[in-house]
Amino acid sequence: MNSALYNKKLSKFLFSINSQCILAECALWHEVQQAIYWVDIIGAKIQRCHYKTHAVEIFDMPYRIGCFAFTPEEDEIIAAFDIGIARYNLKTEHIVWLAQPEIHLKNNRFNDGRADRQGRFWAGTMNEANDQDLNLARKGKLYCVDGTDTESVISCEAKISDISISNGLCWSKDGSILYHADSAKRIIHAYDFDIKTAELSNKRVFATTKGHRFPDGSIVDAQDHVWNAQWGASQVVRYKPNGELDLVIDLPVSQPSSVAIGGPNMDLLIVTTARHSLSAERLPLEPQAGNIFVYQLYDIKGIAEPICLV
Question: What is the pTM of this model?
């Protein structure tokens, strides 16, 4: 890897949040609340850190949660739990199921997802089967849940199939390109995205990784560059719109899992990490695994997180 990528003075470590999550994912910045959100999938929790005070709140979830998006209601989210997608109120704990397309598939659960710039909710699935079960249909799909044009009719449509581990979902600044990673295949694809119909076309390879370097959660910044957390590689990378590597940030842990850009000036990089799957020998070498890391960015800004309207 070009060492010059490391010498760009575009970021500086600020602080970490001692969350010690098993599998932190889905970093999101809430503009109104000025707070960082993330999930612990295995721990079945959402955590929230208020930026001004660094105070952390924990919300226990009724099921394991892979991802979520904010809605116009202050305490309501739309969440992809392991068994399906639902509206959920963080205070009242009231749940309304919207879709459970794979509840009949043993070992399948929802993983990464987010709202698109038109307010639809997208979430992908994966199969948790052990290696000896790989002869089974270890495939997931990426689903789009829509209801933005009606008051009551909710649709849930599979948009991408044959996925090993659905990850890295994000959109270009103008919403015309969808990026999606299949972690196990070490590939990030780009698709042309019809913002009116949510149809995908012109699938192509955006970036690939090698060895024990798996593309995980992604985000697009205001310069239309793609940030990607690379599981197993102790790095977050920034790609140019043409897929060329632009910047590398090293982390003191091996399993960065998702990224967001937020903060009062929308210039803080937020990185979730995980302890999940680290060996007993490796854990003492990574005491900060499972924490949230925050970096100051220079000359780089983020884009406000879309609100889900489903």
Answer: 0.94
